[in-house]
Write a structure and sequence with these properties.
This protein is of the alpha+beta class and 197 residues long. 22% of the residues lie in helices and 35% in strands. It has 4 helices and 13 strands. The strands form 4 sheets. A 6-stranded mixed sheet has the order 3-6-8-9-10-11, with helices on both faces. The chain is globular, with a radius of gyration of 17 Å.
């Protein structure tokens, strides 16, 4: 069942049909399924986007390794799939803390998801993807990352309930992720992007 009325001009399908379609996906495209709607995007983002994603993944991975955590970090390559929501998304960065089956290409149990917003993705990240992500029982933090200035919007879930929005601004601020027991500075997230001469 779709999340909302189907918009004419878009292609809709079930998650099962979408998974079959992925076998024919051109290498230069990135496909997602959001509420049963197929979203096709070209591979290749601005370098700033790619650098922010790399920074988040690297610093999170290093912090988790230093803490001896078994949680794993994935960047733009591992699907979040949710059958009831007819969704298969590729978050920019996500953290998974449960065991993964050998050969798995997706999870339905991320603990943290980051999306780096661009002009083309912002509405999808704020509305459509958030509609899907907030229904994932495992998710504890959803982080929207501005690409062109140091700012984060953070949604947190505690005791099964989503709290209000946390806003972080400026390179001196830090993102605390209670579900992982660590924090990440905005200066690390934006290193090499906004501190260039």
């Amino acid at each position: 069942m779709p999340l909302r009325a189907r918009t004419p001009g878009y292609e809709y399908m079930s998650l099962d049909d979408f998974e079959e379609l992925l076998a024919d996906k051109p290498a230069h495209e990135k496909w997602e399924l959001i509420g049963g709607r197929v979203v096709r995007m070209m591979v290749g983002a601005r370098w700033e986007h790619a650098r922010i994603v790399q920074n988040i993944a690297r610093h999170l991975g290093n912090a988790l390794d230093a803490a001896g955590s078994r949680c794993q970090v994935f960047a733009e390559t591992f699907f979040v799939k949710q059958t009831e929501m007819e969704a298969a998304t590729l978050p920019d960065v996500m953290v998974v803390c449960g065991d993964l089956a050998p050969g798995a290409t997706s999870t339905d149990a991320p603990v943290v998801i980051f999306e780096v917003m661009s002009a083309g993705s912002e509405a999808r990240d704020r509305l459509e993807k958030w509609h899907v992500y907030q229904k994932l029982p495992s998710l504890r933090h959803y982080v929207l990352v501005a690409r062109d200035h140091p700012a984060l919007e953070v949604f947190d879930r505690e005791n099964g309930l989503w709290s209000g929005l946390r806003l972080l601004n400026g390179a001196d601020d830090a993102l605390s992720l209670d579900a992982l027991g660590l924090s990440l500075s905005l200066s690390d997230i934006y290193r090499g992007v906004l501190d260039r001469a």
